[in-house]
Amino acid sequence: MTTEAGRRRATTGEVGMGSGDRTMAAGRLGGTTMNDQAGPPGRGGWLDRRLDPDARLGLRLTLASLAVVLVLVPFTLLLVLVKTSFPPLYRLDEGVANTLHAYAVTHSGWVTFLEAWTDVFGPGTWRVVVGVAVVWLVIRRAPRLAAWAVTTITVGGLLGLGLKVVVDRARPHLPNPVALAPGASFPSGHALNATLGVGIVLLLILPFLTHLQKIIAWTVGAVIVLGVAYTRIALGVHWVSDVTAGVVFGVAVVAATTAAFETWRRDIGRRPAEPHLEGVEPEAKAEISPKGRAHGHKH
Questions:
Q1: DSSP 3-state assignment of 145?
Q2: How many CB atoms lie within 10 A of CB 105?
Q3: Residues 6 or more apart whose Cβ sits within 8 Å of residue 257
Q4: Same structural domain for residues 83 and 182?
Q5: How many Cα atoms sit within 13 Å of 88 on the Cβ side?
Q6: Is residue 48 situated within a structural domain?
Q7: Are 67 and 255 in contact (CB under 8 A)?
Q8: Which of 3, 61, 266, 293 has a CA that sits 20 to 30 A from residue 257's CA?
Q9: Per the structure, how many domains does the chain have?
Q10: How far apart are CA 64 and CA 280, in angstroms?
Q11: Looking at the domain assignment, is residue 47 inside a domain?
């Protein structure tokens, strides 16, 4: 009986050990599962999530935000230099203005060309062009794309006017002026609106263009913007720093609204896009093209 009782105790102990082993194994399994759910250490912070290669939206929007900030750096620097009357900038502005004005005074035909260019590609033209594009987008049932275009041209223009009031910089005062313009000087409204208009139009039409056509379109757009900037200096109504600030600020506004639109695209499950190559919404090609569906498609 003693031997049989001992065997029963030993068996009970083995069973207990087996239960303990199973409990420890379950604990290890539960610990592994919890660790797996918690994810790798150091990846829970905001910066890690934004730069995670698997989170393609976060990475792209972070890079887009950095691009906007980088574009605004030279604008902010120019603003500070203008407000503090930085001597080297003052000499550059005055020297270029005097040189170009001296040529314009003795070449009336050149002045006529400059005036034509600055009027054809002036703010009013871009407002009309963007307005027509917006109407077309609404007809084709692309309201959010239309809202992006309206927001970009409107917000950019209003911010430009606000900056003029705040900075309140005087325009050049040159002998025998060949042109006159009202209001403050910094930043150049013509340069700003040309940048906004060209940026909006290009980002709308890029989905319809071939690779070569895209290169040509960007080149033509750059020529238009730089041409407007040049005419404003050569006509004696703006300083170099005025038109530079207008172009830089326009690029920043277009970049910011495009990044915001990209956020919306990804929120509804669309693939990441490269706006400078594909346009602000590549999927719009089939919807807003004259050869597309008869009544478009709601976004």
A1: helix
A2: 16
A3: 148, 151, 152, 155
A4: yes
A5: 2
A6: no
A7: yes
A8: 293
A9: 2
A10: 13
A11: no
| Residue of 198, 242, 247 whose CA lies nearest to 219 | 198
- Is 231 within 8 Å of 130 (Cβ atoms)? no
Residues 171 and 282 in one domain: yes
Lookup: tokens for 135: 């109407």
Q: Are residues 86 and 154 in the same domain?
A: yes
Which amino acid appears at position 91 of this protein?
R
Indicate the residue type of 109.
Answer: G
Number of residues that make up the chain: 299
Taking CA atoms, 140 is separated from 137, 253, 280, in Å, by 5, 25, 16
Q: Pseudo-torsion of CA 90, 93, 99, 101, nearest 10°?
A: -120
Using the structure block, give the residue that is written with the tokens 């905001």.
46
Residue 45 within any structural domain of the chain: no
Q: How far apart are the first and last CA of the chain?
A: 86
Return the CATH number at 147.
1.20.144
25 and 141 fall within a common domain: no
d(CA 58, CA 52): 7
Find the domain containing 195 and state its range: 56-288
Distance CA 153, CA 155 (A): 6
Asked whether residue 77 falls in the same domain as residue 123, the answer is yes
Tokens standing for residue 153:
């041209």
Across the 299 residues of the chain, what is the mean pLDDT of every consecutive 10-residue run? 49 46 44 43 49 47 59 77 83 92 92 96 95 91 87 92 90 89 91 96 91 95 97 94 94 88 71 76 67 46
Q: How many CA atoms lie within 13 A of 176 on its CB side?
A: 11
175 and 81 within one domain: yes
Q: How many whole angstroms separate alpha carbon 143 and alpha carbon 122?
A: 26
pLDDT of residue 262: 77
7 with 136, same domain: the answer is no
Query: Is 241 inside a domain boundary?
Result: yes
